[in-house]
Design goal:
Helix content is about 65%, strand content about 0%. The chain has 9 helices and 2 strands. Helix 5 packs antiparallel against helix 6. It is mainly α. The chain has a single domain (about 5-195), classed as Arp2/3 complex 21 kDa subunit ARPC3. The chain has helices at about 5-10, 15-35, 50-60, 60-75, 95-115, 120-135, 135-145, 160-170, 175-195, and strands at about 40, 45. It has a two-stranded antiparallel sheet. The longest helix has 23 residues, at about 175-195.
Length: about 200
């Protein structure tokens, strides 16, 4: 199989507009469902939302992965309860707005890693997932630290100290990011093995 082929291309063959539309709709539904799944962890529970985003990116490739996330965000903006905790477009004014927007880049980068053949084996996929998950904190933190106040949002989470953001926005999620990276690596590696044995 070609090194620049994605899982979806290897599994379903030629691309077509209808197939891509169905993939985008199915992928956005998959992410919406995963966002509602909460796994008990300490100190905070972990949702499977970012794992689903990584999987969509690794499977669909950069452009289709990003398009899927744009559709997902549009669904939330239209009022559908697709975000974590059943939230909708109101989340764009909340503390996680930067993460929501960063999801598009997350899927794109996962897809790029897949297209370049980096995210095919266990180590490459796991390392890619960890790096991409770490990069998500950049837009995730820029919003509450620097932008929310400029948009007139006055909330206890806006414009706080770096210690506040480390304690509430980063540290509780690091273990979950590592667990999801391992899961993504296992799933992607397993899927490629199954496809190569067909």
């Amino acid at each position: 199989m070609s090194r620049d082929m994605t899982l979806s291309q290897a599994a379903t063959g030629a691309d077509g507009a209808v197939k891509k539309l169905l993939m985008v709709l199915g992928g956005s539904a998959f992410i919406a469902i995963a966002a509602q799944v909460s796994v008990p962890m300490l100190p905070v529970p972990m949702t499977l939302q970012t794992l689903a985003i990584l999987m969509v990116g690794f499977a669909f490739g950069s452009r289709l992965g990003a398009a899927t996330l744009l559709a997902y965000l549009a669904e939330g903006a239209m009022g559908l309860p697709v975000f974590a905790g059943g939230m909708n477009g109101l989340a764009f004014a909340g503390p996680t707005a930067g993460f929501l927007l960063g999801f598009v880049a997350m899927a794109y980068l996962a897809g790029l890693a897949a297209e370049r053949g980096i995210a095919r084996g266990f180590i490459g996929t796991g390392a890619s997932a960890l790096v991409i998950s770490a990069l998500l904190y950049i837009p995730g933190l820029i919003w509450p630290v620097a932008l929310a106040g400029g948009f007139g949002i006055e909330a206890g989470w806006a414009g706080q100290s770096s210690g506040f953001y480390w304690t509430w926005f980063v540290a509780p999620f690091l273990i979950g990011d590592a667990v999801k990276a391992v899961i993504a690596a296992l799933v992607v590696t397993g899927a490629w093995k199954v496809l190569s044995n067909r």
